[in-house]
Amino acid sequence: MSTITGHNYIGGQRSAAGTVIIKSIDASTGEQLPYSFHQATVEEVDHAANAAAIAYPAYRSLSAAKRAEFLDAIADELDTLDDDFVALVCRETALPAARIQGERGRTSGQMRLFAKVLRRGDFYGARIDQALPERKPLPRPDLRQYRIGLGPVAVFGASNFPLAFSTAGGDTASALAAGCPVVFKAHSGHMATAELVAGALIRAAEKTGMPAGVFNMIYGGGVGEALVTHPSIQAVGFTGSLKGGRALCDMAAARPQPIPVFAEMSSINPVIVLPQALEARADSVALDLTASVVQGCGQFCTNPGLVIGIRSPQFSAFVQQVARLIGDQPAQTMLNAGTLRSYGQGLQKLLAHPGIEHLAGNAQLGNQAQPQLFKADVNLLIDGDEVLQEEVFGPTTVFVEVADQAQLSAALHGLHGQLTATIIGEPADFEQFGELTALLEQKVGRILLNGYPTGVEVCDSMVHGGPYPATSDARGTSVGTLAIDRFLRPVCFQNFPDALLPDALKDANPLGIARLVNGVSSRDSQ
Amino acid sequence: MSTITGHNYIGGQRSAAGTVIIKSIDASTGEQLPYSFHQATVEEVDHAANAAAIAYPAYRSLSAAKRAEFLDAIADELDTLDDDFVALVCRETALPAARIQGERGRTSGQMRLFAKVLRRGDFYGARIDQALPERKPLPRPDLRQYRIGLGPVAVFGASNFPLAFSTAGGDTASALAAGCPVVFKAHSGHMATAELVAGALIRAAEKTGMPAGVFNMIYGGGVGEALVTHPSIQAVGFTGSLKGGRALCDMAAARPQPIPVFAEMSSINPVIVLPQALEARADSVALDLTASVVQGCGQFCTNPGLVIGIRSPQFSAFVQQVARLIGDQPAQTMLNAGTLRSYGQGLQKLLAHPGIEHLAGNAQLGNQAQPQLFKADVNLLIDGDEVLQEEVFGPTTVFVEVADQAQLSAALHGLHGQLTATIIGEPADFEQFGELTALLEQKVGRILLNGYPTGVEVCDSMVHGGPYPATSDARGTSVGTLAIDRFLRPVCFQNFPDALLPDALKDANPLGIARLVNGVSSRDSQ
């Protein structure tokens, strides 16, 4: 394993100009790890953003095939991060080794998937309208469009995915794929992990001849504002809290030149348990739902934080069953002390609310998170009480009982935007509750039938996004190949001779990509 | 021609609750026209936004084919707007009849093009990743993605295109195509025009059985804030000034739920005249450029406001030639008194600046706009002086002479974001100035070779967008079929039985659209 120096990565060099030292913490013991990280100074933030801006013209001009080589090389380097690395990530996050091994594979797989997107070429969005010199009353000029990267992207890593949503995670992968250099702000919860992953990225950049500054990483608290307001930064990717994400959005919107922010923030991921499913398989639903609630100590953006069912003896029995299961779940160590503190505060709000009843779970004490179950009055949803809309990050969920189908609709209408919604049902349920899909489509980015929202597949069809406050822009996703769209913009060429056009738009179609030619999709040369 | 009542269109009804009356003005004489418009009250703005929100679930659930019928019916109704209508538009805008006739055709053509997009189906962005139940270590669920409309869209019409960028213009067409009901805020410069076009839209909605509230229109000043901050509004389209557009962006970003705004605002559309072109055809370039500057009284977003050339006797002669031509151009009537006032103020700023020389044009007096020509010191661009970055809306342009190729690059680097850039050159120029395309790509939405930026083709490949301040979001366009993307968001279905999926994602591909299936583009059934 490489030595951890705690220096920032700026323009292909290491930099440690600052005197503020931050320590990484063992998440299980709370002890300091033997690494010292130099918080980036304002000048270093400036240098990092400028390094990315200097790299941008060269990097974006590389062929997509060359950028794909870089992403594949990153994937290969990630795969070589060994057991010592996994052990270090586990120390910083208290996540189990199997999870980190899986996440490492997911992260390198994600890079390879974006390499595939680059070779496939549909990200170009290539469109050609050939000249119509004889058209009356006016001739049509030759017009061609493709998409290029926006420019340097600032990425803020998540606490809960030290690999897949961090240094070399989905935001970085999609930005690099789009041709955008990255300035990554390491999360304070796993800075040693970030350093080793950044080392892998830099090795891959050097091996494949990328411009210095294609990837930069800075440490520290309070550096986010300097980064987001830097004139060279052209877009922001963020995964974290509503408060943090909204603050970045507000800063970005108030810049002299506003820039787009994709912030993935807050979701309670409702699960709707329908009557026939309870009739047919209440036991297995109770087991699977409980497992999803406590999986990874509930530290997932898609953790099911709300379960809705229709009043019946079966639903009452189901609630009791889940209460028993939750009561039996062991306490788990959270990602860091701040996360545990937030969990405790979230539970306090639920416990203190007169419309919410505590159903199961040991008192929240000590340095681990106790799984908890609550039941809330449906009117809290219908009347728009904020208490149920706020994500409580951790191993807890809230049951809501509705009187009937009409009240179910009313309750769902009361929800804010979500990453996911899940329907647990049998065919007879789907027939009876046919309106649910259309209603949920307006609220969420992903609807699941008979599954659980934790576990987000990285593929072309995934949407890890949704209406506010799930994200800051429902048009994007931070997981899956569509994530690249956030960092691309169209450019049109009018009346260009073939030789001066980018390869994606040349008559001969040298890249062999699908293009919309005179309104018809085609892979042919023209 | 229908009677003009001056009542707002809200939820399929006419509404005139307010007591503030606004008059439409004859742009040529300054006299009031015999129509009285009722400024919408805050309650009426609320009703209009709510009417759109109520229409949304029904409207978005219609098949794309049904929405295409609606757009085609709008186009047919627009085509029936007769000579009396054209005469009225001319009175309100002082634009010539031939231009309005052309714009009518462009506006109905735009509607038909979006109908074609709906039938083509690529706007769905359909993606399918089939289940891999045997995959290790975890099976992959079935995942499918398509795109739906964001919700009600607020559209602010432009002064300078009373048809193509107004009531039934590109923003309205793309929003309606996306499945988004519209609340249109009529421009004070052509309210009678707006009423007649809105009547055409409503007739088309009734004929094709659209839900009431699919299109709403309100009159008045100061109603924009109530509209943009209304919780039902989910996106904004705007064409107008930097000040107005930025104000809407700031309001939208400060909402409890921020929403996307596409504002097309300010562009000076540089034209770069290269040496060999001057050698070969200075006369025709001077004629064509002058025509583009004064066309339509210079009242185009893409009006060439900056012309850059390299110091040489030929360039000096060319400047003199354009100066003579501009000096010969007649004064023209502008769209309205406010536009003329702004033009005068813009000229005053140029005249007062010590780094800018006045080359041609009669003193700006009376009620018409006098074409003007200026020459500015290149250091104003290089040093980032704001005076050249600000669009002066009207028949004027500014020449800038650079010392050499390096200074040309420096000057272009100094530019803010633009809708367009134009290169006038011969093949030998393109060879010598090969770096220009890559440089301009970073600054603009559309690059033209040997053409003029005025005249924006409506087609798949057009980009009428660009980096700030040309627009508020470089990822969008307000002309061309890609405009629909601004109002769409992806939704993912996980593990849905075929019968419950939208048609766009069903195995049999009943719509016959192109889809990305397991990473491969296909029109097949699965």
Automatic annotation (TrEMBL), chains A, B:
A molecular-function term among this protein's GO annotations: 2,5-dioxovalerate dehydrogenase (NADP+) activity
Highest taxon of the lineage: Bacteria
Catalytic activity, reaction form: 2,5-dioxopentanoate + NAD(+) + H2O = 2-oxoglutarate + NADH + 2 H(+); 2,5-dioxopentanoate + NADP(+) + H2O = 2-oxoglutarate + NADPH + 2 H(+)
Family: Belongs to the aldehyde dehydrogenase family.
Stretches assigned to the Aldehyde dehydrogenase domain: 22-456
PANTHER family with a match to the protein in the record: ALDEHYDE DEHYDROGENASE-RELATED, SUCCINATE-SEMIALDEHYDE DEHYDROGENASE, MITOCHONDRIAL
Cytoplasm keyword on record: no
Protein name (record): 2,5-dioxovalerate dehydrogenase
EC numbers for this chain: 1.2.1.26
InterPro entries: Ald_DH/histidinol_DH, Ald_DH_C, Ald_DH_N, Aldehyde_DH_dom, Aldehyde_DH_Superfamily, ALDH_KGSADH
CDD domains xref list: ALDH_KGSADH
The entry's keywords: Oxidoreductase
